[in-house]
Automatic annotation (TrEMBL):
PANTHER family for the chain: MANNOSE-6-PHOSPHATE ISOMERASE
Needed co-factor(s): Zn(2+)
Domain Phosphomannose isomerase type I catalytic: 4-148
Record protein name field: mannose-6-phosphate isomerase
Residues binding Zn(2+): Q105, H107, E132, H265
InterPro entries given in the database record: Man6P_Isoase-1, Mannose-6-P_Isomerase, Pmannose_isomerase-type1_CS, PMI_typeI_cat, PMI_typeI_hel, RmlC-like_jellyroll, RmlC_Cupin_sf
Organism from which the protein derives: Aphis craccivora
EC top class named in words: isomerase
Pfam family, one: PMI_typeI_hel
GO BP of this protein: carbohydrate metabolic process; GDP-mannose biosynthetic process
């Protein structure tokens, strides 16, 4: 019978990450012995836990790639997972520490991911979809999904720069024609994203000056603080205007959002646990120096308008210490597990393989062997294995992806 084992995981030093000890990624990575030291000048953006070919975790005891180990020990996945996904781990879990906005992006559906990979394999390097979920570990900010049409119409009417970029007639038609809102919004958004850089630059500077002249209440209505922050990070980038089209969401620790196929989004700031299907497919359109594919993005996008609160994804209590976040896809689920100090309990048995990471607290795993739980430690739990946890003198918080 397979046993629980520890993983050695890799980090990503993207430009949007937090620096040095300010990063939750760096602190957990050091504590969990994934890195030997923290460089105060280095940016620490992501800690990856999984078997994605790009940066697979390692079996700590042997140094073997987790993806290779699974091929030789595929029973770890469980029959249910193997029947649906074959001999590969279908999910990837990450810790993210964000100091500046990620790109405005969308992830394609499974069918369209296969098409993009076939047509442009050098850009879209795998054929899988990438639904994903984020649970905040700190105060967390994001753009997610199109705003209700009424809100978008308000901003289009009140910000004259949009009329200069998009044109009065198209905006007026969007305001009046309620039966074709999706199609008209698509035309407006595409025209915005494909406008000449000089026009966008002039419009952004004009809007920025007008924001400075507003009273505090008006500045809040027009999200002046967010606009100025994005403009500072990405000067002259059309993505700065997207805050008036997409919902601006602020999560408290423990709150979650789910991002299905074709949902426009951009993480802005904060720390989170993220879980996704095993893919790295991204179609970008702004707030990035990377490759931008506006035509593909607008072809993919879901242009339905919905309020910000509809984007929150609520967990369900499985028992007194486990909250389950199960999205409407079979690739993954995520559980937040909080166990009080000095407790002894069994984790719920899963019929598929899972990975756990400790965020806070101390404890021990008693399965067929004893393993120490402490912040940053990451473990693989084979399918159908029951483990008992003994919590130390402070409460234990961990996340389980499966």
């Amino acid at each position: 019978m397979l046993e629980v084992f520890e993983l050695q995981c890799c980090i990503q030093n993207y430009l949007w990450g937090k620096k040095g000890f300010a990063s939750e990624v760096s602190r957990l990575s050091l504590a969990g012995q994934h890195i030997d030291f923290i460089d105060e000048k280095q940016l620490y953006a992501e800690l990856w836990m999984g078997a994605l070919h790009k940066n697979p975790s390692l079996v700590k005891s042997s140094g073997q790639k987790l993806s290779d180990w699974i091929k030789s020990n595929n029973e770890v996945l469980g029959e249910k997972s193997r029947l649906q996904f074959g001999d590969q781990l279908p999910f990837l879990m990450k810790i993210l520490s964000i100091n500046s906005a990620l790109s405005i992006q969308v992830h394609p559906s499974k069918d369209y991911a296969e098409e993009l990979h076939k047509q442009y394999p050098e850009i879209y390097q795998d054929s899988n979809h990438k639904p994903e979920m984020a649970i905040a570990l700190s105060k967390f900010e994001a753009l997610c999904g199109f705003r209700p049409y009424s809100e978008i119409k308000f901003f289009l009417e009140e910000i004259p720069e949009f009329q200069m970029i998009v044109g009065y007639d198209l905006i007026d038609q969007f305001k009046r024609d309620t039966t074709n809102s999706q199609y008209l919004l698509k035309d407006i958004f595409y025209k915005l994203l494909t406008s000449e850089k000089e026009i966008i630059s002039q419009s952004l500077n004009s809007h920025k000056k007008k924001l400075q002249s507003l009273c505090d209440d008006k500045r809040n209505v027009f999200l002046a603080k967010l606009f100025n922050q994005l403009d500072c990070w990405f000067p002259n980038d059309v993505g700065c205007f997207c805050i008036y089209f997409l919902n601006y969401i602020q999560l408290s620790p423990g709150q979650a959002i789910y991002l299905g196929a074709n949902e426009p989004h951009a993480y802005i700031y904060g720390d989170c646990v993220e879980c996704m299907a095993c893919s790295d497919n991204v179609v970008r359109a702004g707030l990035t120096p990377k490759y931008i594919d506006v035509k593909t993005l607008c072809k993919l996008l879901n242009f339905n308008g919905a309020p910000a609160e509809s984007k929150l994804f609520c967990g369900v209590k499985e028992n007194s210490y486990t909250t389950l976040f199960r999205p409407p896809v079979p690739d993954f689920a995520l559980a937040c597990i909080k166990i009080p100090a000095d407790e002894i309990c069994e984790l719920l048995k899963r019929d598929v393989a899972s990975i756990i990471i400790v965020i806070h607290g101390q404890g021990k795993i008693n399965a067929s062997q004893e393993l120490t739980l402490s912040p940053g430690k990451v473990f693989m739990i084979p399918a159908n294995v029951i483990i008992q946890i003994h919590v130390g003198f402070e409460s234990l918080e961990l996340y389980q992806a499966f």
